Amino acid sequence: MAKHKLGIIVGSNRRESINRKLAQALAKLGSDAFEASFIQIDDLPLYNQDNEQPVPEKVARFKAEVEASDALLFVTPEHSRSIPAVLKNAIDWGARPWGKTSWPGKAAAIIGTSAGAISTAVAQQHLRAVLGSGAGLHVMGGEAYIAFKPDLIDAQGNVTDDTVRTFLKSFIDQFAAFAGRFVPARTAAAA
Length: 191
Ligand SMILES: Cc1cc2nc3c(=O)[nH]c(=O)nc-3n(C[C@H](O)[C@H](O)[C@H](O)COP(=O)(O)O)c2cc1C
Fold this sequence. Notes:
Elements: E1 4-10, H1 18-29, E2 34-38, H2 57-68, E3 71-75, H3 85-95, E4 107-114, H4 121-134, E5 138-139, E6 145-147, H5 162-179, H6 185-190
The chain binds flavin mononucleotide.
Flavin mononucleotide binds next to helix 1.
């Protein structure tokens, strides 16, 4: 069966991002169902409605990558009890110009990690509202809050804790099944 094209969006522009490490681990765990690629957001200009016609080159690239994805996985930190500005900026560009949104109808899943006790829970709730009600994606239900420990993910992207690995594998498998309900007919036809 053909693999779904998965676009992974990491809500962090930090070099040593723990959320990017989590995303790499998920890409590996989901490699039987998804062909994953990372969609860069940290090079996008700050959104400005004055610069929409035409959109800047990097925004055009970003929108094309989103549109080429069958499903989108958002892996995000929490900043000040909400989503990081770099991620909201990308979501806004994806939604514009008026009539040319890149988001609607795609399957999405949300996950995130921080060292904090309630690990990204508030940011994920905000993101769920932005993606679902605002941008028109189909956001998978459930909750996935990962408390990060220094050696949780090794340099090869393997999850070292059995319980966390089992949870993440189940999460990405559920997402593959969920995404299968929304992939375009062209993918289903190729399967
Ligand atoms: C501006 C800022 C605000 C933050 N606010 C929160 C927060 O509200 N909740 C939380 O759990 N961690 C918060 N943190 C800590 C992040 O969880 C931590 O920096 C984490 O490493 C970010 O993920 P990343 O490594 O993928 O960038 C904040 C960090 C920054 C820089």
